[in-house]
Amino acid sequence: MTPRDAAALPTDRTWQKASQLVRSSYKEGDLILFAPDWIDPVGRMNFGDLISLDMAARMDTARYGRIWEVSIRGAHAPETEGLIPAMVRELDDITVRFFDRPPAVVVTDIREHLAAAKVEGPARPTLELAEVGFAPHRCVQVVPPAKSSVRITFPQLALGGRLVGYVGLADVFTRRSPRGPGTLRVEINGREVAAATAGVNDGWVRFEAPTTPGPADVTFVASADDPQRLICFAAEARQ
Amino acid sequence: MKLATWGWPPDKQRVIGWALALLTVFVVTTNEQDIGIARDEVVYMGAGTHYAQWWLGLVTFEHGISKQSITQGFGGADPTANNREHPPLMKTAMGFSHHLLYKTLGITDELTAYRMPSALLAGLLVLLVYSMTLAIWGFAEAILAAICALLLPRALFHAGLACFDAPIMTLWFATVYAYWRCLDDRKWPWQVGVVFGLALATKHNAVLLPFALGIHYIVIAWRAGRWRGLLYHKPRVLLSLALLGPLTLFVLWPWLWFDTFTHVRQWLTFHTSHVHYNFEYLGENWNAPRFPWHVALVTTLFTVPVATIAAACTGASVWIVRWRRGESADHERGPALLLGLSFAASIGPFFLGTTPIFGAEKHWMPALPTLCIAAGVGAVWAARRAGEALYAHRPGFSEEVAQRIALGVVGGALVLAGTTECVSAEPYGLTWYNALAGGAPGGADLGMNRQFWGVSARGVLPFIAKQPPGPVYSHDASPAWGWYQRLGYLPKGYPDAGHELEGIERSQLAIVIHEKHFNRHDYLIWKSYGTVRPVFVLKSGSVPIVSVYKRPP
Q: Which residue of B has its CA nearest to A93?
């Protein structure tokens, strides 16, 4: 909950000042977040050239070490919760906070290996930029027919110490009806290591499994009882 | 107490009501000039022209009354053919208004002509609120109640549209008022039945009215004569409602002139099984029941000026205390109870958790006249107490002067608060929230619905007009796009590119009207344009309402 001070509203000039401040120390690959989320369009208008599609449609923020948070009305992005800012600047009605932390080391991103994946089942996965939980996510999307499943195997995927992923149902209009969930099971060399179920109101559901570093066959099994479940998932093997 | 009339004779008091009604029509008509075209308006305006042409054709003997001609004019096989899912009164009035004001007299533009009937009914509402309050509670109460009815930002917004939501508020209240009037000893209370029929012919909300009127009738009839009263109190009022109401609806709606029961059933079934559109409430997107029980309560608290709510709470308390003391005004006809039941019948279904909430306050706007009358009563009660205190502490003032000062301050504060809220709300009234919510940004913080119907797209037309010509992905404003071009709000050379991804792929410019469930349209555009950066963001109270993207070279 943010304070509801009607007067605490930045002008275009303040946005320009914030933009200048961020740009003065910005480095390629820095993540820029806006808070509260409803200022996102204004934020993107002022900083959009620094935000790539992949960054905007990220799986999560773990791979970003340098994070800028541009906020108004005392709000904070949920992704910065628990982080200690290295810099805080108040610019009239905008607060700019900068965070510098060790990023997660990504060994493999499954989205980059979809072309090599082996698919078993009645539907083909595609790489999409989809709406899941009203947020953008670049993900592997598959729509299994009702009461069936699709197995997507990434052969000999390089793994680190853990596999982190997310799953959700894409597209608000197909989520409206029917209302059943979609399920994703993760197998490594044929053994189930994680599973997650995403309902119509669950958004982007996290799953994680410890892994043994080295190559392994990683299989994602997407299933649903209802038709039109746009099961959308992403996963990264991290050190 | 002279305060009650300020020494104005009754005929001059009535003039005030008419003056406030005219002022309301002027304010609504002026305000709507800046309001964009709602998606539904396009349908209603088209249907209205169709209906009016049918009636004109009938009276000029171009065609007769046949199943075929009525079906072509008012119905069809599809459940939404010729907009047959909504009764015809307002649409027909819009069609005739367009024919008269625009085509024949040429004194307004097309859009204003279509919207004029709703504006006139907004004026009528203010007059009726004034008249009922004046008759029961007094002159000062009537003025303040009427002004409160004028200064409701959301209602003012809706009154400017060629839709049914403000009109049903008027005709609902007109039915309540006519019912109360007909509870006198007149022999033929036909008026209440006819007005109820007009309400039925305006919007389906009217089918809830019998709950309010029926319960009220039982209470006052029981009071009047116990069991015997239930049978003999004012049975002709009930007969009028039961017979003339449906008959009036029947006469006004040719679609009911054949297969009557089937068509009535189809009309009501359409609404009892209506699809649940996406709607944001307290940060969540709702598109399926069960909805939170408190949607109507919280939304009303956030969309009526706070001063009006405070005064209404005071007024309701005054009514309850007076009732408990046996001092209720017009005890026999129980007007405060009637207004309370009207409020409950209008808003009550939205506490069930299954009634569609996607239009928010517009669905239960008939509750608002009760609130405004209570506000008038409450404000004057508070002013009287303040006047007494002023007189007690400043004996230099006469009692009358003290009372007038108090009324000026209390009433002035009420009017000023409502005016301020209205000025800050328009023309993007659906994005506005009151001071309790923290204005538009407070509403956004709370995750209240940003807008609907694509109305705000009009605000980005001047920006688009400055861009190199090319197809525009017009998103939720697609139905209105042709209108904007026809009315000259947008130069030629900016055609609608089409729907969804196909339209986006064809476009050079793209807009997104911000609602939570429309985020996906941003992402479709990002994918096609290869950028997340809009070139323009329209804001209301600093809250983004429309983004414009330009395809990078």
A: B542
The count of C-alpha atoms lying within 13 angstroms of the C-alpha of B395, restricted to the half-sphere facing its C-beta, is 0
Mean pLDDT over B340-344 rounds to 98
Q: Spell out which residues of chain B touch residue A201, defining contact as CB-CB under 8 Å.
A: 284
Q: Structure pTM?
A: 0.95
- What are A10-53's pLDDT values in tens digits? 999 999 999 999 999 999 999 999 999 999 999 999 999 999 99
- What's the pLDDT band for A1 if we cut at 50, 70, 90? very low
Residue B437: its chain A contacts at CB < 8 A? 4
A184: exposed, middle or buried (C-beta count within 10 Å: 0-12, 13-18, 19+)?
buried
* % chain B with pLDDT above 90: 96
Query: In this predicted structure, what is the pLDDT of residue B2?
Result: 45
Q: Domain coordinates of chain A in residue numbers?
A: 12-100, 106-238
* CB contacts, 8 Å: B543 with chain A: 38
pLDDT at B357: 87
In whole angstroms, what is the distance from residue B200 CA to residue B90 CA?
11
Chain A residues with beta carbon closer than 8 angstroms to that of B290: none
How many angstroms from the chain centroid is the CA of residue B76?
Answer: 28
Q: A87 — contact with chain B (CB < 8 Å)?
A: no
Chain A interface includes B534 (CB < 8 A): yes
A100 touches chain B (CB under 8 A): no
Quick one: pLDDT at residue A6? 52
Residue type, B400: E
Q: d(Cα A59, Cα A62) in Å, to the nearest integer?
A: 9
The rounded distance, in Å, linking the Cα atoms of B481 and B249 is: 34
- The residue among B446, B524, B533, B536 with the most chain A CBs within 10 A of its CB, best to mutate, is B533
- H/E element, B424: helix B399-425
Mutate to test the interface with B, among A32, A52, A71, A172 (most CBs of B within 10 A): A172
Q: What is the pLDDT of residues A124-138, one digit of tens each?
A: 999 999 999 999 999
Structure tokens at B525: 């555009």
Task: Tell me the nearest-neighbour CA distance from A52 into chain B, angstroms.
Answer: 7
How far is B463 from B456, CA to CA, in rounded Å? 13
Query: Is the Cβ of A146 closer than 8 Å to some Cβ of chain B?
Result: no
CB contact under 8 A, A44 and B532: yes
- Side-chain-side CA neighbours of B186 within 13 Å: the count stands at 14
* Pairing status of strand B284-286 against strand A31-35: unpaired
Q: CA-nearest residue of chain B to A49?
A: B533
B530's tokens:
């290869």
Rounded distance, CA B473 to CA A81, Å? Answer: 37
Note the pLDDT of residue A4: 44
CB pairs under 8 A between A and B: 100
Relative to beta strand A205-210, strand A162-169 is antiparallel
Q: CATH number of the domain at A106-238, please?
A: 2.60.120.1060
Give yes or no for a contact between A53 and B532, defined as CB atoms under 8 angstroms apart.
Answer: yes
Per the CB < 8 Å rule, is B519 touching A131?
Answer: yes
For residue B225, how many other CB atoms are within 10 A of its CB? 12
Q: Per-residue pLDDT averaged across B374-397, rounded?
A: 95
pLDDT at B394: 87
Please give the mean pLDDT across all residues of chain B. Answer: 96
CA–CA gap between residue B276 and residue A90 (Å, rounded): 43
Nearest of A120, A160, A123, A158 to residue A142 by alpha carbon: A123
Closest alpha carbon within chain B to A37: B445
Which of B281, B284, B290, B523 to probe by mutation at the A interface, max A CB count within 10 Å? B523
Q: What is the pLDDT of residues A169-193, one digit of tens each?
A: 999 999 999 999 999 999 999 999 9
Q: Which residue in this structure is represented by tokens 């793209």?
A: B510
Give A19 to chain B, closest Cα distance, Å: 14
Asked if B203 and B86 count as a contact pair (C-beta separation under 8 A), the reply is yes
